[in-house]
Amino acid sequence: MILEIKNLNKMYGKVQALNDFSYRFTEGVYGLLGPNGAGKSTLMNIIADNLKESSGEILFNEVNIKTLGSNFRKILGYMPQQQGLYHNMTLNRFLYYMASLKGMTKSEAEEQIDQILHLVNLEAHANKPLGSFSGGMKQRALIAQALLGNPKILLLDEPTAGLDPKERIRIRNLIAKISFEKIVILATHIVSDIEFIAKEVLFLNKGNLIDFGSPQVLCEKLSNMVYEIISAHDGVTDIAKDYRISNIFKDDKYAYIKVITTKPPFEYKYREAKPNLEDVYLYYFDEDVL
Ligand SMILES: Nc1ncnc2c1ncn2[C@@H]1O[C@H](COP(=O)(O)OP(=O)(O)OP(=O)(O)O)[C@@H](O)[C@H]1O
Ligand SMILES: [Mg+2]
């Protein structure tokens, strides 16, 4: 299974939301990381055929998705970023309705909806109106509709936005569980959502694909660039002036300041630290830090 994106461009007036984006997706989970406005939702909307590209093409198993038409939609599950749910509809009715839009028969829907409700842990709420759901339940309801029809390609746009840590972990585990034999593309701002489940991570900024690779390979790029400075508590302000800080930990005696830098911080007491994906994120997108 190959989803191949070739030279995709999207302009909104003068704003280039996607700039010559190309990538080959195969089975597995892919994380799309990047700040607001990076182009993550634009990319997903174009793949989901909700938005027209300015130029470029998308091939599924070497066939242009335009020629696949509704057959492509059938193998696609899409969870949008915005929660546009029907408040008075019960979850059950919502899922039957979405199944009918996907062209599924009533008996197909019946069979799958029970399974999916179990998977997203919402069985007990199937007959409650969506308007009564918490944010986490709404996110899971949206994931549930994306799973209808057992799609081969699953697009999840910030599935854990606004969730408490427990819900976030629950959804992360769910995604890991359902990703078997699928291409899953997941946009997020939360590095820990994908650090351990993504086969590859793509960093997007202002429409450009600035780097990509397995979490391990991306982290290795930062080897010899991440250090922990051990300083007195009041030393943090000065260190922040000169260094890109990724984390601060304090105990009774010292502050342990993780910094990303091309040269070791010789002027301080320091030790080498192991880079993680969050460090890689900060390395590329440091403007918003502190
Ligand atoms: N309908 C639209 N009309 C005009 N500009 C748009 C529209 N949708 C998106 N844009 C612009 O395109 C760029 C990419 O937006 P997009 O929503 O794809 O980013 P994103 O990475 O999903 O951001 P976020 O993390 O905030 O969801 C931004 O500059 C945005 O302002
Ligand atoms: Mg978005």
TrEMBL record:
Domain named ABC transporter: residues: 3-231
Protein's UniProt name: ABC transporter domain-containing protein
Keywords, in A-Z order: ATP-binding, Nucleotide-binding, Transport
Domain of life according to the entry: Bacteria
Family membership: Belongs to the ABC transporter superfamily.
UniProt xrefs under Pfam families: ABC_tran
Gene Ontology terms for molecular function: ATP binding; ATP hydrolysis activity
Lineage: Bacteria, Bacillati, Bacillota, Clostridia, Lachnospirales
SUPFAM superfamilies associated with the record: P-loop containing nucleoside triphosphate hydrolases
PROSITE patterns in alphabetical order: ABC_TRANSPORTER_1, ABC_TRANSPORTER_2
Xref: InterPro entries: AAA+_ATPase (IPR003593), ABC_transporter-like_ATP-bd (IPR003439), ABC_transporter-like_CS (IPR017871), P-loop_NTPase (IPR027417)
Lipid metabolism recorded as keyword: no
CDD domains: ABC_drug_resistance_like
